[in-house]
Protein 1
Amino acid sequence: MHEMGLMAEMVDLLAESAREHQVRRIDKVKLIVGKMTNALPDALLMAFDVYKEQELFSPSAVLEIEEKETIGHCAECGTTFPVRDNALFICPSCQGLRIDITSGRELYIENYEGEEETRYDN
Amino acid sequence: MTIKVDLGTPLLARNEEMAEEIRYLAAENRLFIVNIMSSPGAGKTTLLEKSLAYLKKDLRTAVIEGDIATTRDADRISAHGVEAVQLNTDGACHLDARMVYRALQKLDLARLDLLLIENIGNLVCPAEFNLGEDLRLVLLSTTEGNDKVVKYPVMFRDAQMLVINKLDLLPYTDFSREELAKDVAGINPALEIFYTSARGGQGVEDWVKRLVGLVRAKYGVS
């Protein structure tokens, strides 16, 4: 539900970084989205279509989303296992309940590509 | 020329910075902050109203009321003689740290022990936004069903306290306390569970006592 807001944050962070690195037009953004965040990739893509109208992006700019599975690590026996489809955080080996989430909460911009500002400083 | 910039910046980086500011302010003023979340209609405001009667005796308390629109909830809280700041998000589905930070400017923090933040009724989005709180409380009513814990794992995984409300309606629902306990163990075994009927006031004192204990444990007796 809050994907528009997340996209607005992404655009602000990109604008700031683009200024810093003298990037004029962004062509591609890569986002990492864990399955255990409440951000839905489809909704993020839809929101991106709205925001990419801004000058910061080239008209053909793409948002690439890499999803990360939720991975649990059992604090009792050390087993690492995927937590799928909202399954409970129960260790498949020892039925332990002290599970650390090692992946699945990610929500960050990994990188972006763009055209560098043309400089005339000879 | 095309260049590639590696960032690694979280989308919620600015919210986290703001939450850090709130934590700093709270520590400076010895203020304990609770973020209260639930779906719409679970009974957040009613639980607050009933809790304030007990809380007022021990802790100087203020409330931030998050709502999409209207000041009705803040009016309900003010009627109990407790300072309430209404935050209207104009459509946004959650409170973020920036909104809370702004609301804090309206309160005399040095004269408060406890701040209760009633988030927007929603079990999804508020879970993602850190408000600099000391405690996350989720309220779930028996009429919603015990399966919500498994359906909204992020919300329940990150909470420290769960209040099951509308216990008086339990006989009219399929809500199972056993199933709930089993699911909670699988999602967040450290989650503390309380049962209340906020409307009639049953069970309210128990969770309030626990809350007062947590505030005292952090800041000592004032």
Protein 2
Amino acid sequence: MTASRFWQISIWILVLALAIAAPWAFYNYHTGRQSGFVISMLSQMGMMSILALSYNMLLGQAGLFSLCHATFFGIGGYATIHFLNMASAGSLPLPMELIPLLSGLSGLGLAIVLGYIATKQRATAFAMITLGIGELMVTSALMFQHFFGGEGGVNTNRMIGRSLFGLTYAQGIQVYYLILAWTLLSALAMFFLTMTPLGRMANASRDNFERVQFVGYDPRMVRFFQFALSGLFAGIGGGLYAITYEIVTFDALAAPLSANALLMAYIGGSASFGGPILGAVLITLLQSGVSLMSNSWLVYVGVLFISMVIFAPSGIMGLVTAHGPIVRGGQLGRLAVPYIRVLVPGILMVAGFVGLVELTSFLTIGAAQGKSLVLFGNKIDVHATLPWLSAAVCLLGGGFWLRLEARSFRRVWEGLMQGLKPQRSVA
Amino acid sequence: MSDAALALKNVGKAFGNLEIIRGVSLDIARGERHAIIGPNGAGKTTLFNLISGRFRISSGEILLNDVRIDGLPPHKINRMGLSRSFQITSIFHRLSVFENLRCALLWSMGYRYSFWTPLWLQRELTARTDAMLEDLNLTPRRDTAAGLLSYADQRALEIGMTIAGGASVILLDEPTAGMSNSETDNAVALIRRVSKGKTLLMVEHDMKVVFDLADVITVLVYGQVIASGPPHIVRANPAVQEAYLGALDAA
């Protein structure tokens, strides 16, 4: 137990060190600054981590399937634009470093009001109420021009000239470290919450809401407090968004972002605390990395999500922790060969799939944009039969081969697990 | 204060036109171990659901320590000192055995919805949870997810969660259902131990358990009480024999 605790803490420290060091790995000595692209991607990862973690306070920890989480992120963003404008005008004497606190309080305030309504119900009814709330907020954002600025949104200048550390926040790197600090703070606070009576009863009401009543708790109040607090953190995330981009439009509170929160928490692994961070990093990478290379990055996110739901409902983190007993038993080495045997057909299948998607995409969107598909320096004719045929063969052949290999992989896996006498416990 | 810990006054429950409970009146004295028996469909579990607030009653009154509790939500009834177990095990299956019992202790120890108290620093809470584990013989399973326990261990945990909050009136719904003989013996010993000084109301099908544990037996048939009294008197009641116990004597 203490050994695994040691490794957990080590991994967290390593992740933090990586996050601090990452911008410097992309330092350009020519211009004397870090890559703007990398800084903005890392910043995005930070605020999305907060969003995903706060979403998981509902999904993973309380079993609440919310479809309006971006509402609280968005309101934090909008409010922050106004706070920054007030600060610039001198009517809000607060240093930049503390502005996200106000963003969080905005999220909390709205989550108290809307949560009061939504948490009256649970399960499917709760999900439907939150769907309605999300739509209502988007409509409101377009209707109340004064606060939301209509279609064009609202904007600001983050150089408010007041800082605890004398920083101007003119450079992206300063904003990034502000985001990192608030991400760390929020993550620690949310982790702390999991170990309080409320956090534990949220878990309990996820597992069995009825029994919660018979140990003296009102499950509705458990949902309400959990919902309100998750709104607080989402608001902080939205505040950091506003500070980074200096403009907030209704995209920041609309359904696609709510869906993204869900995707990140789920793909990363909603059963573990850190999973959503992993999901946020992965989705952001796909969003800003793959989208440069491919028009169809959303297809990949979608397929990844569907495959996770079907084959790995506990997410990437769940897949990793499933290896725990094998690692403790010192048998991980025995999985090396089986892994290679599933990896080869797996890669083949993925390559075939990507090939087909890209061919289709270049046949339609690519053609309209006047681009052509280039693979290993060779231009590929999307109207020829050979590329389509080879991609299809890769996909189908790889798929069937993978099925066979997966079967033998499962046998090895189960054999190992049997030998180790599993004793699982989930927090 | 009367000496009835729990009193039912002409309690009725109908689902639509279907009358499940038809005017049940019952006084359960403080410190009494009271068993409700009756054939399948007599309404025993429904009666528990009414007392514990899971369902609302259609007519009558239910008093816990002379205070009306009918119409209150389950969590409020629980806070007033009445706790129940379930016939179909109802635990927090993804949480460890320790966490299950700790959750059952939280409200009674005044933690409420606190999101500022670090659980790992609560010594008394931890000590009481561990003592509870010991009492239930579940210490070796402390960190196992409750959903992975054996059936008998889950039933023990179910009873443990019911009594953990220190309720003075305990309702156990078929605590030994589905157990082997030796498991039943253990469960009876456990119930005897943990119900000391408390008022116990239980539904039970195993007549050996009933006559072993109960001070008073009430026989419920088609939603009505046909007899209530000490075991030897109920056993001798001809109506009871006809309705129910005939099978027992034959066995």
